[in-house]
């Protein structure tokens, strides 16, 4: 069956019976055909009723005339005179109207050199669901030669349609098959010409704005358009609660954006809300929707906080942000009738929101409205939110759709990321539960091939930073003008790693934009012109970049499965090139190596001691591992050096020099609560550098070191 867009056209109550009748018949065309019904999305009234694309034949443009023979008075000056409600009205000849659109398409195809020489057939036609061929022949005095069999599909073709009869009608219009193998790329070009609004990522006027949907760097896609499923989904969603669940890179945000634009354009007097969780994505979506004054784009925390202020609940300056308390206050305000209301709400990355947050959003509708679209991916739930559609009042049973094909990443990147995320589950994956919000969806890869990802295993956190700088410098040599390199690191508690990366890039004169440099920077991500973007994985959600370097795959404040999802999110931001730099001793290292080996790639082991010597410019502060303490003489240790554990005890754990110094001071202090600033002062380092050891190494290895040190200290005291 052909792809009908919108797919629910046969059952829509807002279109005429004659249109639904034609749609039922046209859907019987071959499976590679697309049937677009245009008037639902055309406020200008200039587009025809149906445009049909048959890849082996050509393009047919059809106008529907829903009039019986007794209601047609005749033709006059290119107009049809109709009798409706006992009054004469004149409408444009349907074939003439269709012919105008055919001429417009012909000019566009002729202007496209990649298909201009293919002799694609285009033909106008009329659908006459209430007129039989016999009636047309009997009334030639009225119809003349206007509705010949070559240009019409009559009632006989539509009353009891079958695939053979409908195909014969299009053979009369377009002729027989003329293409035996119409390539996917050429199909994209035709679809982009017929439906220009589905073309992704048109170049901005300035050419400098970071765009949310990046073109592949290798240039093997001649045009990027929404796929048939994405377009159909965006144009077919009806009222009520709807959920789209999709894998990373499947176009969830793309469908949401298209849907928001479609609603705003078709209903300029209605108000819509687009909501997301990360500030960086909010800034991007705001730019992409800025031409629509009837669409508000909001970051959820800000929306909730603004609502909470109107409830009478006060939050003092400097008070730790309590999302549960803020949402509770916001709910109180909304229940009392305060705050804005909307005709429709679209929620991106809904897995990042709690049940209470989703409940709040469902209460922001205007009376009688319930147009709610939610997109989510359980595999990207990196904020440990527990949510339930049902408990939040979302009624979408049977109205959940899956997007499983990943278009963002190359097959090599996706297979590696998927193997890492799902492990053995990927091979056991069977039927997917549409309504289980926590089910992980195994992705299906697109056919785009590329460079295999790189896994660089290093000794410790500072080696991750050093090696990342080296990789950045190598990639800058081959970076295309206008392209970006995204350097992603675990966060938000990994800001210390971001601080070190920022400082090293500054020392090496690498132009970069650090998203976490200040609170307002997140909203400016879309306008950044620097070639290197530095941000946490959290802030990169919903975005994509041609080249991604992941610096570290472990956030010590998170559980192992959250870290796994964090790493997966980071990997799937890359459209073409992915490099992962991570310590060889973190708890995900084995899974990373298994996934990369499964992909047929050998991980590279890097010696961190030599890393800094490979840099173009050696940082002024030297390699932090080899930096000696500037305050040895003035160290205020509470115990003598003789109380320190034997060197062989620490050596057994393969500590870096910096780790050894920090652990030694911790043992000497007699407390694991020694402040980072005190440790930094004694070591002659900065607080951020010490924090990387204290809070970016809380794994089994470091805990074992501490336990061993304390046991040694206790045994020494007993003696």
Tell me about this structure.
The structure is a single chain. The chain is an alpha/beta fold and 719 residues long. The chain contains 24 helices and 24 strands. Mean pLDDT is 78; it is low at 202-215, 426-437, 608-647, 696-701 and 710-719.
Q: Which features would summarize this protein structure in a list?
A:
719 residues, alpha/beta, 7-stranded parallel sheet, 6-stranded mixed sheet, 24 helices, 24 strands, elongated, disordered C terminus
Q: Gist?
A:
The protein is α/β, with parallel strands linked by helices and 719 residues long. Helix content is 35%, strand content 16%.
Number of helical runs?
24
Helix content, binned percent? 25-40%
Shape: elongated
What integer value in Å does the Rg equal? 31 Å
Going across the biggest sheet, name each strand in turn.
20-21-19-22-23-18-24
Main β-sheet description: 7 strands, parallel
Count the beta strands: 24
Give the N-terminus to C-terminus distance in angstroms.
85 Å
Mean pLDDT: 78
Q: Specify the structural class.
A: alpha/beta
Low-pLDDT residue intervals, each spanning 5 or more residues: 202-215, 426-437, 608-647, 696-701, 710-719
Q: β content, as a range?
A: 15-25%
Layout of helices and strands:
Layout: E1 3-5, H1 17-26, E2 34-37, E3 50-54, E4 58-64, E5 72-76, E6 79-84, E7 87-92, H2 94-110, E8 121-127, H3 133-138, H4 140-143, E9 152-153, H5 155-159, H6 163-174, H7 184-194, H8 228-236, E10 241-246, H9 252-266, E11 272-276, H10 279-288, E12 295-299, H11 300-309, H12 323-335, E13 344-347, H13 355-362, E14 371-376, E15 400-403, E16 405-406, H14 411-422, H15 424-428, E17 444-445, E18 454-458, H16 461-476, E19 485-489, H17 495-507, E20 512-514, E21 532-536, E22 545-551, H18 560-571, E23 574-583, H19 589-598, E24 604-605, H20 647-651, H21 657-669, H22 676-683, H23 687-695, H24 700-718
Parallel strand pairs: 1-2, 4-8, 8-9, 10-14, 10-15, 11-12, 11-13, 13-14, 16-17, 18-23, 18-24, 19-21, 19-22, 20-21, 22-23
Antiparallel strand pairs: 2-3, 3-4, 5-6, 6-7
Helix pairs in contact: 8-9, 11-12, 12-13, 14-18, 14-19, 16-17, 17-23, 22-23
């Amino acid at each position: 069956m052909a792809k009908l867009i919108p797919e629910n056209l046969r059952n829509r109550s807002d279109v005429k019976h004659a249109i639904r009748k034609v749609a039922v018949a046209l859907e019987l065309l071959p499976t590679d055909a697309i049937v677009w019904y245009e008037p639902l999305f055309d406020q200008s009234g200039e587009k025809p009723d149906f445009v049909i694309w048959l890849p082996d034949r050509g393009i047919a443009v059809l106008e529907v005339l829903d009039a019986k023979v007794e209601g047609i008075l005749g033709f006059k000056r290119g107009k049809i005179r109709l009798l409706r409600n006992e009054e004469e009205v004149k409408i444009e000849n349907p074939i003439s109207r269709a012919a105008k659109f055919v001429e417009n398409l012909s000019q566009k195809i002729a202007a496209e050199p990649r298909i201009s020489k293919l002799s694609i057939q285009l033909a106008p036609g009329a659908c006459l669901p209430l007129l039989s061929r016999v009636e047309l022949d009997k009334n030639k005095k009225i119809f003349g030669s206007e509705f010949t069999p070559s240009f019409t599909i009559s009632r006989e073709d539509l009353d009891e349609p079958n695939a053979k009869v409908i195909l014969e009608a299009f053979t009369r219009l377009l002729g027989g098959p003329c293409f035996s193998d119409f390539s996917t790329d050429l199909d994209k070009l035709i679809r982009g010409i017929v439906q220009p609004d589905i073309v992704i990522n048109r170049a901005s006027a300035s050419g400098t704005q970071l765009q949310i949907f990046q073109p592949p760097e290798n240039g093997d896609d001649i045009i990027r358009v929404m796929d048939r499923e994405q377009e159909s989904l965006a144009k077919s969603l009806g009222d009520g609660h709807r959920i789209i669940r999709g894998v990373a890179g499947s176009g969830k945000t793309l469908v949401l954006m298209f849907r928001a634009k479609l609603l705003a354009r078709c209903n300029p007097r209605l108000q819509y809300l687009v909501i997301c969780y990360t500030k960086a994505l909010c800034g991007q979506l705001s730019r992409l929707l800025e031409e629509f004054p009837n669409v508000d784009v909001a970051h959820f925390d800000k929306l909730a906080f603004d609502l909470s202020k109107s409830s009478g609940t006060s939050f003092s300056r400097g008070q730790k942000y309590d999302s549960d308390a803020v949402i509770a206050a916001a709910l109180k305000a909304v229940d009392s009738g305060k705050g804005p209301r909307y005709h429709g709400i679209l929620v991106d990355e809904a897995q990042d929101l709690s049940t209470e947050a989703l409940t709040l959003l469902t209460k922001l509708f205007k009376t009688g409205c319930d147009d709610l679209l939610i997109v989510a991916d359980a595999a990207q739930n990196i904020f440990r939110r527990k949510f339930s559609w049902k408990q939040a009042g979302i009624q979408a049973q049977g109205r959940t759709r899956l997007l499983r094909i990943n278009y963002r990443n190359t097959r090599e990147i996706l297979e590696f990321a998927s193997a890492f995320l799902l492990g053995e589950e990927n091979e056991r994956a069977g039927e997917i539960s549409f309504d289980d919000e926590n089910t992980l969806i195994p992705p299906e890869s697109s056919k785009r091939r590329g460079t295999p990802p790189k896994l660089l295993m290093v000794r410790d956190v500072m080696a991750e930073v050093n090696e990342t700088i080296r990789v950045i410098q190598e990639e800058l040599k081959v970076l295309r003008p206008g392209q970006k390199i995204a350097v992603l690191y675990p966060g938000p508690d990994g800001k210390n790693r971001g601080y070190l990366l920022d400082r090293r890039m500054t020392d090496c004169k690498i132009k970069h934009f650090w998203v976490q440099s200040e609170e307002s920077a997140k909203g400016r991500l879309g306008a950044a012109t620097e070639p290197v973007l530095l941000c946490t994985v959290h802030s990169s959600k919903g975005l994509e970049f041609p080249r991604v370097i992941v610096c570290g795959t472990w956030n010590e404040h998170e559980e192992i499965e959250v870290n796994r999802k964090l790493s997966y999110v980071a990997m799937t931001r890359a459209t073409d090139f992915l490099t992962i730099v991570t310590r060889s001793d973190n708890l995900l290292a084995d899974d990373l190596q298994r996934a990369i080996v499964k992909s047929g790639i050998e991980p590279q082991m890097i010696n961190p001691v030599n890393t800094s010597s490979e840099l173009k410019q050696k940082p002024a502060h030297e390699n932090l591992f080899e930096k000696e303490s500037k305050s040895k003489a003035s160290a205020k240790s509470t115990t003598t050096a003789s109380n320190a554990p034997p060197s062989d005890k620490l050596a057994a754990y393969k500590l870096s020099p910096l780790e050894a110094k920090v652990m030694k001071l911790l043992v000497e202090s007699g407390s694991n609560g020694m402040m980072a600033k005190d440790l930094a002062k004694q070591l002659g380092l900065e607080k951020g550098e010490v924090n990387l050891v204290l809070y970016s190494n809380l794994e089994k290895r470091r805990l074992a070191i501490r336990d061993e040190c304390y046991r040694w200290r206790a045994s020494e005291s007993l003696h």
